[in-house]
Write a structure and sequence with these properties.
With 376 residues, this protein is mostly helical. Helices cover 56% and strands 2% of the residues. The chain has a three-stranded antiparallel sheet with strand order 1-2-3. Strand 1 (23-25) and strand 2 form a beta hairpin. Helix 4 packs across helix 6 (119-143) and helix 9 packs parallel to helix 16 (329-350). 45% of the residues are buried. The structure holds acetyl coenzyme *A and oxaloacetate ion. Oxaloacetate ion binds at residues 25, 187, 190, 262-263, 310-311.
């Protein structure tokens, strides 16, 4: 049986790299809080826009503030012509995370943050426009249509589904998207957030901070794991096949995406929540394969390695059941995490010192210069 995870060693593991009032991860083993509120409560009771407000403005909005915030975000969904034009030039086989990165960067050219006093408006604009960026490109590249990026749906999650599918989402799907965006919104000093904070610490602009963070999130060890988890579960036709497949992968010492975590020791509290929604969606679509396969993977990984599902694993089946193409999974993470990234950028700016750690040198000492003609 595996030993409890030790938070030490390479990758700055277990080292405190700064302060935050935004989030706690893994306090007493398994918890997750945003500004002191438990994730289970938030996922059950809140709407994502409320959480974005909480993270970005420092408190839960009252009814009037929330209505005004939702209205503001709703009014900021349009894409400038130059951005549409850039998106139309990105090839169909591009990775959608590269599209997000380019889209965010282009927005920074068109609507540059000239002064930090503009930060809230620039951040709200990104929250509002990211679903438009990804769906505009996706439907243009894949279906040859130029979609209208306005919709009547107030929620960011529902709006994304409507733009993607060209029809109003069901109540259930809108609800699941809402929960998903809440679960992904914030997670302390994870790799992409740390990227954003390092960038912010140089007093760079908000679009640079978020563009860099998107690049970090893209990797399969971080946000990209939800796509990789989908690729894994789709390989198996039955739970028994999944069990055999996983045992083989473990024997070959392959990484199983969607399992394990840098901080949590026994479980990721977001998993139980999204798993329950994945189950509901599986029932809705009459799935008899993907959900049971996912459950068996969870059982096998815990039994064999004491590795648990992280937030990404059951997101894969949940998104799939809602008809979302696999390559759009990580861009949804961006649509959500931009709230956390931006809140961290604000926090860093409010109490800044450039982030510049040191390294232990392991290279050669006293190397003697050799003229180029004499080098082997
Ligand atoms: C939203 C998110 O970003 S959540 C994370 C998403 N990423 C993934 O799902 C990718 C798969 N998981 C992983 O690669 C890792 O678990 C990470 C990157 C999340 C955490 O990395 P670390 O903190 O270095 O992992 P940890 O210290 O717990 O690893 C302990 C051992 O378990 C192994 N291990 C950890 N996760 C996995 C996994 N998913 N599959 C197989 N083995 C694993 C490690 O290789 C390591 O073995 P070793 O001691 O023989 O080298
Ligand atoms: O905290 C981490 O290292 C990764 C993670 O789960 C997240 O960013 O949501």
């Amino acid at each position: 049986m595996a030993e409890a995870k030790q938070l030490s060693g390479a990758g700055l593991r277990g080292q405190v790299a700064g302060e935050t009032a935004l989030c706690t991860v893994g306090k007493s083993g398994a918890g997750l809080t945003y500004r002191g509120y438990d994730i289970a409560d938030l996922a059950e009771k809140a709407q994502f826009e409320e959480i974005a407000y909480l993270l970005l403005r420092g408190k839960l909005p009252n009814r009037q503030e929330l209505d005004a915030y939702v209205k503001k975000l709703h009014s900021m969904r349009g894409l400038p012509y130059a951005l549409k034009s850039v998106l139309e030039h990105i090839p169909k086989d591009a990775h959608p995370m590269d599209v997000m990165r380019t889209g965010c960067s282009m927005l920074g050219n068109l609507e540059t943050e000239e002064d930090f006093s503009e930060q809230d408006d620039k951040i709200d604009r990104m929250l509002a426009v990211f679903p438009s960026i990804i769906t505009y490109w996706y439907r243009f590249a894949h279906e040859g249509v130029r979609i209208e990026t306005e919709s009547d749906v107030d929620s960011i999650g529902g709006h994304f589904l409507e733009l993607l599918h060209g029809k109003k989402p069901s109540e259930l799907h809108e609800r699941v998207m809402n929960v998903s965006l809440i679960l992904y919104a914030e997670h302390e000093f994870n790799a992409s957030t740390f990227t954003a904070r390092v960038c912010a610490s140089t007093l760079s602009d908000i679009h640079s901070c978020v563009t860099g963070a998107i690049g970090s999130l893209r990797g399969p060890l971080h946000g990209g794991a939800n796509e990789a988890a989908m690729a894994l579960i789709q390989k198996f036709k039955t739970p028994d096949e999944a069990e055999q497949g996983l045992l083989g992968m473990l024997e070959r010492k392959e990484k199983i995406m969607g399992f394990g975590h840098a901080i949590y020791k026994e479980s990721d509290p977001r998993n139980a929540i999204i798993k329950q929604w994945s189950k509901k969606l599986a029932e809705e679509v009459g799935d008899t394969v993907l959900y049971p396969v996912s459950e068996r993977c969870e059982e096998v990984m815990w039994r064999e390695k004491k590795l648990f599902c992280n937030a990404d694993f059951f997101h894969a089946s949940a998104y799939h059941f809602m008809g979302i193409p696999t390559e759009l999974f990580t861009p949804i993470f961006v649509m959500s995490r931009v709230s956390g990234w931006a809140a961290h950028v604000k926090e860093q700016r409010a109490n800044n010192r450039i982030i510049r750690p040191s390294a232990d040198y392991t290279g050669p000492a006293d190397a003697k210069w050799v003229p180029i003609e004499e080098r082997p």
